[in-house]
Design brief:
This protein has about 250 residues and is an alpha/beta fold. It is built from eleven helices and eight strands.
Length: about 250
């Protein structure tokens, strides 16, 4: 366990989406067994209908977890029922059909974090999630264009038509949309980039497979692609992945 008095996480003003200074301690090999146990207990509570916030506080207090560790176990945890249901609806990228709709910020930020050496979490539902948080504002980092190119390379092998959905209310969404359109046009890709008021709502109503790691989206769609995990599996050197799936 890590004392909260030893760790102070300051606002991230860096040009990368890499690890916070405390992450080496918070997610060290010594911490992982405790975090896995916490994920298991939180998942047990969620599976029995306990409120997420109070359950997280109960488990976090029991193991004296920091705020960042609590964020991690919350993202990694889910009930057995939710885990099974999500895994039953996942389809391989090669089998998703000619069209894929992508939760743009969700996928791009995770790949940026992976390229920057940030902490990634392998979660109980088989999804890889990051610890980044935009708080309504997106800022381009040095890895953004590289991340888009890497995503494009993976998509080119399997998908003909790609629809990128970005939340219009997020600051700088228009700039990212312009970057995606420019990249798609330059490379001759069949990309459609849309700014929408509510990406979650749009994707859960889609008739096509979607790519996202957002649990609310995964619980509402008929088919989804584990795109972030597929991309990260191809990255060399291997990104920093903390396995909390057990």
């Amino acid at each position: 366990m890590v004392s909260t008095a030893l760790v102070t996480v300051s606002p991230d003003r860096r040009k990368h989406r890499g690890p916070h200074p405390a992450d080496g301690q918070l997610f060290s090999d010594e911490q992982v067994p405790t975090l896995r146990t916490a994920v298991g207990e939180l998942s047990w509570l969620l599976g029995r209908g306990y409120a997420p916030d109070s359950s997280l506080k109960l488990v976090g207090d029991r193991y004296q977890l920091t705020a960042r560790q609590r964020t991690a176990i919350r993202r990694a945890a889910c009930s057995d029922e939710d885990s099974r249901a999500r895994k039953e609806r996942v389809v391989p990228l090669a089998e998703c059909g000619p069209r894929l709709e992508i939760d743009g910020f969700n996928v791009i930020v995770s790949v940026e974090a992976a390229m920057s050496g940030g902490v990634l979490l392998l979660c109980r539902d088989g999804v890889v999630r990051d610890l980044a948080s935009m708080h309504g504002s997106y800022r381009k980092v040095e890895e953004t264009v590289k991340a888009i190119k890497l995503i494009a390379d993976v998509l080119d092998d399997e998908v003909q038509d790609v629809v990128w959905l970005l939340d219009r209310p997020v600051s700088n969404a228009g700039r990212l949309a312009a970057t995606l359109r420019s990249h798609g046009q330059t490379a001759g890709r069949r990309w459609d980039v849309k700014l929408v008021a509510d990406v979650d709502r749009q994707l859960t109503r889609s008739a096509h497979p979607v790519a996202s790691s957002d649990s609310r989206i995964l619980d509402g769609v008929d088919a989804w692609v584990n795109l972030t995990r597929t991309i990260i599996a191809r990255m060399r050197p291997r990104p920093w992945i903390v396995d909390l799936s057990s």
